[in-house]
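Today's session is about reading a structure prediction critically. Students often jump straight to the picture, but the first step is always the sequence itself: look for stretches that repeat, for charged clusters, for runs of hydrophobic residues. Only then move on to the predicted structure, which in these notes is written as discrete structure tokens rather than atom positions. Here is the chain we will use throughout the hour.
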Amino acid sequence: MKLYAHHAGKVLPITLPDGQTISNLCQRLSDILSYQSVKVSKFPGGKEIQSEISISTFFDNMDDVWIIKTEEVKKETVLHLPAPQALQYTSLTKYSFYEYDSNWVRVEVPFEGIGKHDKGKISCKFDENSFVLSIHDYKGKNYQFSVLRLQCKINPEPCRYSVLSEKIRISLKKVKETDNWFSLFKTKTVGGDD
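Below is the predicted structure for this chain, in token form.
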């Protein structure tokens, strides 16, 4: 079956074998247009056609199909580095931390000359109980500062880091304003929870 797909002022001819579903049509259009997903209608601005329905239920050969909704492919920033298992890291052990205000904890990791290093080779990954700062290819070596169990939970989404001339500052967003960060690393306390 041949259809003419309308999208962004363009018409795309598309041919599909008989017996295909709307899902097959949407997948084919997603591939052609490089979208994560595509939704279609029989009319411009019309109602979305459900994916499990047969194409021939709605369309005849040489009919028009309208793309009414698309979702972009989400691309992650990827460092072009050797395979992770091949990397060797030197642990950074010097740091300071303080509660910046009732919502934030700041961690400062001193690192001489880091401000001149390629920012694309510095990353920090946050999780609700941990974070890992990685510095790649600084004078031929890789460095890492990691806290695998934080004293209290953080909200990873707003957490961030900044590269200054002689240190890296990491800002951790507290989950609870009332959390007491007497230590950066999780420590047991008398009567405290595990």
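Discussion point for the tutorial: Residues 84-173 form a domain with the Immunoglobulin-like fold (CATH 2.60.40.790).
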